[in-house]
Design goal:
Elements: E1 2-5, H1 20-28, E2 32-36, H2 47-52, E3 56-58, H3 61-67, E4 70-72, E5 90-93, H4 101-110, E6 113-116, H5 131-148, E7 170-174, H6 178-189, E8 193-198, H7 201-211, E9 215-219, H8 222-231, E10 234-237, H9 252-257, E11 263-266, E12 287-290, E13 293-296, H10 306-327, H11 329-335, H12 337-342, E14 343-346, E15 349-350, H13 353-358, H14 368-372
Parallel strand pairs: 1-2, 1-4, 2-3, 4-5, 5-6, 7-8, 7-10, 8-9, 10-11, 11-13
Antiparallel strand pairs: 6-14, 12-13, 14-15
Helix pairs in contact: 5-6, 10-11
This protein binds nicotinamide-adenine-dinucleotide (NAD).
Length: about 375
């Protein structure tokens, strides 16, 4: 199969959908890789590495999209990419269609087959192509939280690790899922005083088993959240209720009562945020101070570490992309339930119940709700 990897053109996006090692894997399986010139530059991956891996470097993105049978991307198609969609093309990328009516319509009109990373789901309900980015965001949350606490950013001027004779900072992590446990490992690793809360006792038991006595695990309820946040220097919000907006665990009144110059890193901001005071920010202007607390609410945190994020993402996607290339999309979907759940749009119809629910007026596959909804 001819596999195309275009350069990402969405603002601030520096990741690329395939590493040189991934390109070599496709070539070893007998496929042809068309790689847009410079597509790996933002992740520190020069064209020469892709050439060595056996890829063909292509200058014209229109040509690449027209020639490829399978296009691997990171972000959803934007701007001119929408007009490159066509029948017979298989697109595998993050799509987030429920929040994108224009793209959903463009995909339907094009007749293309669109597979979304974020809805590829294993039988146990886990989302293996979302997890790597949650891990990156979780680990990053302590790094950016430490920066927020610096005096010049409006923070309390606290060094999270403390020093000899001075106590470390107090970090409170809301949610002990992928992002929360990743944040917890970094915070504990630098010697902060860490408390993590979740409503799921199995998740707390896991953290306790892995990190032993280095962190406090606390059941999440209103009283405990309030007590911990009032004592915190840094609060990291990572709660998620799948398919719903994040619960607002921090009321405005609670934020106002927190220590002056404390910080909130709201990783859950892409689902609405864990605090009433959170509003989305971007890497150009990532923080603001509200109720005396520094807020960091960037919706695409992994974007500032594209090198690590590209490798983490492609580690997770490569096996599934190879399945599609090796067997063809029809046979791959027929044999893999996980891949089947990634199918969002095909042949002019919505194929995913979540997307169908978001756009009741758009064409959908027959019997979609009863079959999957
Ligand atoms: N901002 C970014 O750049 C970025 C990047 C990656 C992921 N995310 C977001 O981070 C969030 C977390 O992702 P994840 O993969 O870690 O999810 P996850 O499902 O692994 O973890 C979420 C955890 O929240 C817990 N939870 C639910 N309600 C709670 C409550 N009331 N109190 C305490 N805990 C509660 C759940 O039990 C679960 O353990 C998601 O919203 C995801 O979209 C954001």
């Amino acid at each position: 199969m001819r596999v195309g990897v275009p350069r990402e053109i969405k603002a601030e996006e520096k990741r690329v959908a395939l590493t040189p090692a991934g390109a070599a894997a496709f070539v070893a399986h007998g496929h042809e890789v068309l790689f847009e010139r410079g597509a790996g530059a933002g992740s520190g991956l020069p064209d020469a590495r892709y050439l060595e891996a056996g890829a063909r470097i292509v200058d014209d993105p229109d040509r690449l999209w027209a020639d490829a049978e399978l296009v691997l991307k990171v972000k959803e198609p934007v701007g001119p990419e929408m007009s490159r969609l066509r029948r017979g093309l298989v697109l595998f990328t993050y799509l987030h269609l429920a929040a994108g009516e224009e793209l959903t319509r463009a995909l339907i009109d094009s007749g293309a087959t669109a597979l979304a990373y974020e809805t590829l789901q294993l039988d146990d309900g886990s989302l293996p192509l979302l997890a790597p980015m949650s891990e990156v965001a979780g680990r990053l949350s302590i790094q950016v939280g430490a920066w927020c606490l610096e005096h010049q950013n409006g923070g309390r001027g606290i060094l999270l690790s403390g020093v000899s004779g001075v106590k470390p900072g107090r970090v409170v992590i809301l949610g002990a899922g992928i992002a929360g446990t990743s944040a917890c490992q970094v915070a504990a690793g630098i010697g902060a005083d860490v408390t993590i809360l979740d409503v799921n006792s199995a998740r707390l038991r896991y953290v306790r088993d892995v990190l032993g006595g280095h962190v406090n695990t606390v059941m999440s309820n209103r009283a405990n959240v309030e007590e911990e946040c009032l004592a915190a220097d840094l609060v990291v919000g990572t709660v998620l209720i799948p398919g719903a907006r994040a619960p607002k665990l921090l009321s405005r009144a609670l934020v106002a009562a927190m220590k002056d110059g404390a910080a909130i890193v709201d990783v859950s901001i892409d689902q609405g945020g864990s605090s009433e005071t959170s509003r989305p920010t971007n890497h150009d202007d990532p923080i603001y101070v509200e109720e005396g607390v520094v807020h960091y609410c960037v919706t695409n945190m992994p974007g500032i570490v594209p090198h690590t994020s590209t490798h983490a993402l492609t580690n997770a996607t490569l096996g599934y992309a190879l399945q599609v290339a090796d067997h063809g999309v029809g046979a791959a979907l027929a044999t893999s339930a996980a891949l089947r759940r990634s199918l969002n749009v095909d042949d002019g119809r919505i194929e995913h119940p979540g997307v169908a629910a978001a756009f009741p007026g758009l064409p959908r596959a027959e019997g979609l709700e009863t079959a999957r909804g």
